[in-house]
């Protein structure tokens, strides 16, 4: 398994799943440099939820935008499992701020930190699903497809009114949604619901499509029965 060097952007409360597109507004000098360096060097950027503050910010609520643009803020310890992808600068504002999007391609796990200043670079490996044996794989595929159909129906049933139910039914029976592989589906379904960051981090770390689909099915079923 090949190691990759990935620029890491720790953001409290931000958990990104594979195949998602994350918009970012970048104003700190270190992260403006990180974005530009990473694009130039064709290096992925990871966005990670945070465990704790390592170094507090040196600014306060009276700090002007000009002062914020010239200084860095908190430094965080990141969760070791995160999603990453390649960034694109959509707009550079007159004061230097960047409007960016990152297309997350996969999950990664930190092996070690190889740079701290001016921004983090971590050596990482791909964080992959566990591969079941052939017998389990056949049984699993059948049961997951059944859960998938059940989950789509739950999304429809949870619509607050008839119009919303019709919109959701059209979406989950559409060609684009139906074509998703089980793995892609098991991540895409979380774009339709909202979970607290710590819960979503647990979802990010689950090692199979079945586990991710089952987790959401149980959560929605409990809500539906309340």
Can you tell me about this structure?
The strands form 2 sheets. This protein has a 5-stranded mixed barrel with strand order 1-3-6-7-8. Strands 4-5 form a two-stranded antiparallel sheet. The chain is globular, with a radius of gyration of 20 Å. It has helices at 29-40, 65-69, 134-157, 162-172, 175-178, 182-188, 197-205, 209-225; strands at residues 4-10, 21-26, 45-48, 50-55, 75-78, 81-92, 98-115, 120-126. The chain folds into 2 domains: 4-126, LON domain-like (Archaeosine Trna-guanine Transglycosylase, Chain: A, domain 4, Roll), CATH 2.30.130; 134-225. The longest helix is centred in the middle third of the chain and has 24 residues, at 134-157. The protein is an alpha+beta fold and 226 residues long. It is built from 8 helices and 8 strands, in the order ββαββαββββαααααα.
Distance between the termini: 45 Å
Instruction: Give the proportion of residues in helices.
Output: 25-40%
The appropriate CATH architecture of the largest domain is Roll
Mean pLDDT: 88
Question: What order do the strands of the largest sheet run in, or round the barrel if closed?
Answer: 1-3-6-7-8
The helix/strand series, from N terminus to C terminus, equals EEHEEHEEEEHHHHHH
Could you name the CATH class of the largest domain? Answer: Mainly Beta
**What structural category arises from helix and sheet content?**
alpha+beta
Q: Biggest β-sheet, characterized? A: 5 strands, mixed, barrel
CATH topology of the largest domain: Archaeosine Trna-guanine Transglycosylase, Chain: A, domain 4
Q: Estimate nothing, just give the exact number of structural domains.
A: 2
Supply the number of helical segments. 8
Radius of gyration: 20 Å
Shape: globular
CATH superfamily of the largest domain: LON domain-like
């Amino acid at each position: 398994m090949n190691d990759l060097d990935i620029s890491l952007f720790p953001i409290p409360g931000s958990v990104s799943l594979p195949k998602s597109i994350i918009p970012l507004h970048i104003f700190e000098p270190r992260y403006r440099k990180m974005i530009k360096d990473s694009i130039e060097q064709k290096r992925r950027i990871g966005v990670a939820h945070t465990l704790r503050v390592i170094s507090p910010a040196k600014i306060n609520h009276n700090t002007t935008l000009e002062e914020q643009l010239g200084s860095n803020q908190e430094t965080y310890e990141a969760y070791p499992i995160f999603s990453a992808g390649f960034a694109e600068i959509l707009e550079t504002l007159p004061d230097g701020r960047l409007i960016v999007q990152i297309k997350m391609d996969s999950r990664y796990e930190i092996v070690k930190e190889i740079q701290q200043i001016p921004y983090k670079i971590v050596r990482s490996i791909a964080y992959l699903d566990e591969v079941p044996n052939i017998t389990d794989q056949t049984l699993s595929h059948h049961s997951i497809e059944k859960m998938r159909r059940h989950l789509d129906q739950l999304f429809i049933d949870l619509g607050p009114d008839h119009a919303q139910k019709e919109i959701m039914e059209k979406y989950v029976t559409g060609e684009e949604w139906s074509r998703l592989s089980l793995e892609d589906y098991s991540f895409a379904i979380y774009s339709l619901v909202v979970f607290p960051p710590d819960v979503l981090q647990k979802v990010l770390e689950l090692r199979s499509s079945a586990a991710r689909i089952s987790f959401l099915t149980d959560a929605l079923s409990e809500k539906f029965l309340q």
